Recover the amino acids of this structure.
């Protein structure tokens, strides 16, 4: 056992398991195991970002009702990590991709993994317990600090938390793809259909995102009726 090292085997295993696959049960376990950690691992002074995909009810909740329930979940201090997480903008017609942002208070922070990975104590403990951490190659050794992750517990976020939304272009003919090369280089995903046409999916920058939200709300006098998302609600940004 390592003397004066706050990272014991139970905590290391919980961190490893969370990085493999996060869920409520693992979040609650981490919450219990990190209570007495030094404060440096339990605070975050950076804005945090989280990529989410919402169905119709979720979109209505955060845009129309101005609130969306949250939980213990993974956030990142890097907007670029959030933008590329799970292949970027969803191409599903039933989902709307968003990136939300939040400035956490100390009581929101379950564990600042970015700070953990900067710690010599953590790496010393990992080296010491390496052979006892189950599936370490799938968790700690696989992800490391690549996701710049902060684990937060937040009750809910609101419309002002929306930082970026994912949009989809109009359909273009494959024959003109070379003309649109500069635009294509800035997109998240390209989907080619069977009729030799393609769609481009990308993140709208924060200013354009707010303009889209303002225009959408303006269409309904600032109050969105529940059935506004009854059909395709993906944001089309054109060229």
């Amino acid at each position: 056992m390592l003397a004066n090292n706050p990272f014991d085997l139970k905590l290391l295993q919980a961190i490893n398991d969370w990085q493999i696959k996060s869920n409520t049960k693992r979040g609650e376990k981490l919450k219990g195991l990190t209570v007495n950690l030094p404060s440096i691992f339990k605070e975050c002074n950076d804005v945090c970002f989280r990529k989410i995909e919402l169905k119709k009810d979720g979109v209505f909740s955060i845009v129309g009702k101005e609130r969306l329930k949250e939980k213990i979940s993974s956030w990142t201090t890097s907007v670029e990590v959030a933008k590329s997480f799970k292949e970027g903008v969803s191409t599903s017609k039933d989902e709307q991709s968003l990136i939300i942002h939040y400035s956490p208070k100390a009581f929101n922070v379950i564990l600042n993994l970015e700070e953990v990975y900067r710690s010599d104590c953590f790496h010393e403990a990992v080296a010491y317990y390496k052979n006892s951490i189950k599936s370490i190659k799938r968790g700690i050794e696989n992800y490391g600090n690549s996701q710049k992750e902060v684990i937060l517990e937040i009750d809910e976020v609101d419309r002002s938390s929306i930082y970026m939304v994912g949009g989809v272009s109009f359909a273009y003919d494959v024959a003109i793809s070379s003309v649109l090369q500069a635009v294509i280089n800035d997109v998240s995903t390209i989907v080619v259909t069977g009729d030799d046409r393609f769609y481009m999916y990308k993140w709208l920058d924060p200013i354009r995102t707010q303009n889209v939200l303002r225009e959408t709300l303006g269409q309904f006098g600032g109050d969105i009726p529940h059935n506004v998302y009854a059909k395709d609600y993906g944001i089309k940004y054109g060229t």
User: Anything to note?
Assistant: Residues 225-239 have pLDDT under 50 and may be disordered. DSSP finds nine helices and twelve strands in the chain. The radius of gyration is 21 Å.
